[in-house]
Amino acid sequence: MATLLFFPQYILAESKFDPNYLISDSEIQNWQSMNRSDIQAFLEEKNGAIQSLRAMDVNQTTRKISDIIYQASKEYKINPKYLLVKLQKEQSLITEKNPTQKQLDWATGYGASDGIPLDDPSIAKHKGIGIQIDSAAGIIRWYYEHVGTEPWIKTAGKTYNIDDKEISPSNNATAFLYTYTPHLHGNKNFWNLWQTWFEQVYPDGSLVHVNGEPTVYLIQDGKKRPFTSMTALVTRYDPKLILTIPKSELSRYEDSTKISLPNYSIVKTDEKYYLLDFDTARPFISYEVVQKMGYNPDEIIDITSEDLKNYTIKNPIEINTTNPLGKLVRVKENNTIYYLNENEYRPIYDDIIAKINYPNLKIEKGNSKDLQSYESGPTVLLKDGTVFGVEGNSKIFVMEKGKKRHIASEDIFNGLGFDWKNIIWINQFSGTTIEIGEPIYLRAKIEINQNNTSTTTINNSIVTGSSSTPKADNSTSISDLMVRTPKDQTEIIGKEFDTDVDTYLIADYDTEEILAGKNVNTIRSTASLAKVMTAYMLIKEGINENSSVIYSVEKHKTPPEFHKYRIAEGEKVLKKDLLDALLVSSLNTPARMLAETSKFGEEKFIAGMNKQAIEWGLTKTNFIDSYGGSVYNETTALEYLTIFKKTTSNSTVRSHIEKKYYAYDEILDKDKMPSHFDYHTNELLKETDLPFGIIASKTGFIYEAGDNLAMIVERKTDQKRFVIITMGNPDHDNKSDEPRALAIWAMNQF
Fold it and tell me: Which domains does the chain have, with CATH numbers?
């Protein structure tokens, strides 16, 4: 049985309202508890109107509410969870589906003091949800900065009369909440919301037990179901997934029905026989069917009707029923696994999902004809409680009710007692089919015992199309390795956009006028932005897209940290499909496969790329390889404007780079995995509510470069086009956030 090594470090408090302690100082200032996408996922989960609302922020820029919350949290170093609770506590805006203008104008109650009419001109400057969110975060930071100089700010250790009750805040965070809202009822509402939303909650599918006690429980529908035998447990779950939790945590869950019977067992009650399949029971039409299927009479379990009452009765098993538990078939035409059960087939896009969900079923060989008598069903996803990552992404998720819930930090992962060894990794395609759910949080009131700490880390390599050399150790971040322009050398053109991105450029597509920019003449590593020049030169040379290339490890393989293309020695792929892999997936090995088979060989091909740059008048651009792996592939944002516009003006380049998705099969398959499919590496292409359309785009990343992105966008209101380039984005985990914000800003400014 697994033992949790982390909880001895934590002291967890009972969930009982203490008016002297509402929230810790560290928690209210934990501004990194949620990223921008976490905030948006939370809003969508609560399903209020503001999930899709755009409003003016404090700088009069129109943004999503999640973006406004994120920016305010980042600016003032205040927890975004605090702002979410504040919006609900004051105006119910997180869940309100039809908010009034008054609710939006006074979203966090800032400036709306008791006794002052809301239409009073003296407080009009505080109106507006963007200003309200900014002010709610800003005032808490102001309290921290002025607590020793302003005597009216309530402080820890002093006693105050709040609604005729003596309150002695045990920390400044609690004191500041009473300063902001000097009422007991309002602050209890704050505490209740925080407890409800951000308490430590184990997701459905979790196996938990208390150290020293024998009973293991399944968390299901927010309740705990005890296993009465180890057989009942191991026939359903892997015991290594059991989490050890404090008894106080277990007591928070309401008791639910026991799990007593082994899974997949045959049971008998009232002369009827059933096959148990997790929480369902399928009746056999007769005992003769039980015999025909070869079940051993000695293994049949006698039960009472009471034992069966918590099972859902499903379709009966008849004499002609085959594979009552379903079966797994790998179809040779597309190498995809399907789960066949009843009259339905359901695709499984990763072998590990089949193994996790159906450990007792072997994968059989089949073909498309095997599916003809079945109806198409939904994709098989991971089962509840599975902790997983998606290849090419450093985020860790836990599965619950068909959605992936982001585990936002290592502290949360360790605090919940998950084991790094139990993370399973699924491919990118499978990961994108899973809907995003609300992030998972650790209980708010946790104190870490600094005298007894142990850190468990995991070295996730960033498997993008062009990852650089691995980090030397886990203490070094991507942001630390990225090359930056010194502040005293930073140059701004036009209006300034506030961002940590090192370089940006916004240009009019038709005239190439630079409308705004930062460090546009600074030389930076191209990373995979180089690939558009590779594609352009291949097409200029006259590539035959319907010809093929045979993969050779000796000739084509990039260094291990760059070789992410799934291909075996001797496999044959069409050049048009390699161009998709190059420009859409941003894979590196296809660049070498194409360049090596060019007319003059790879070395002269790269020389041709540099010659073309010179012919275009680009004096600060240099190419070392065909895929952007070397840090010495260099350009500036200003020169890349020329490269990107000229290369994407080629209709063939455009036809590949504009794709959101592609799929193809190898011409010659050697490893029985011929099918390839992927989405574009620009995650903004998945968003449907942007005020612009993306005509063409290319991403790039190596550690020294940071994240790069070049886009041609078209404003939806008037079809005006812009080129937007960002280089040196240090926030790899949220690489779309700043380019999105910059592009939206551009739509409003120019």
Answer: 22-198 (no CATH), 266-313 (no CATH), 327-376 (no CATH), 487-749 (3.40.710.10)
- Is residue 664 within 8 A of residue 580, CB to CB? The reply is yes
Contacts of range 540-547, beta carbons closer than 8 Å, 24 or more positions apart: 540/612, 540/650, 541/598, 541/599, 541/608, 543/575, 543/594, 543/598, 544/575, 545/574, 545/575, 545/576, 545/579, 545/652, 546/574, 546/575, 546/576, 547/574, 547/575
Q: pLDDT (tens digit, 9 = 90+) per residue, 688-701?
A: 889 999 999 999 99
Give me the count of residues in the chain. Answer: 750
Q: In 3-state terms, what secondary structure has residue 428?
A: helix
CA distance 199 to 192: 10
In angstroms, the CA 189 to CA 90 distance is 10
Does the pLDDT at position 8 exceed 50?
no
Which of 733, 668, 135 is CA-nearest to residue 410?
733
Q: Note the pLDDT of residue 134.
A: 96
- Helix (H) or strand (E) segment spanning residue 595: helix 589-596
- Exposed/middle/buried for residue 16 (C-beta within 10 Å: 0-12, 13-18, 19+): exposed
Q: How is residue 613 written in tokens?
A: 């740059």
For residues 86 and 193, the answer to whether their CB atoms sit within 8 Å is no
What values do phi and psi take at 614, rounded to 5? -65, -40
Provide mean pLDDT across the span 29-44. 84
pTM score > 0.85 for this model? no
Mean pLDDT of 396-423: 85
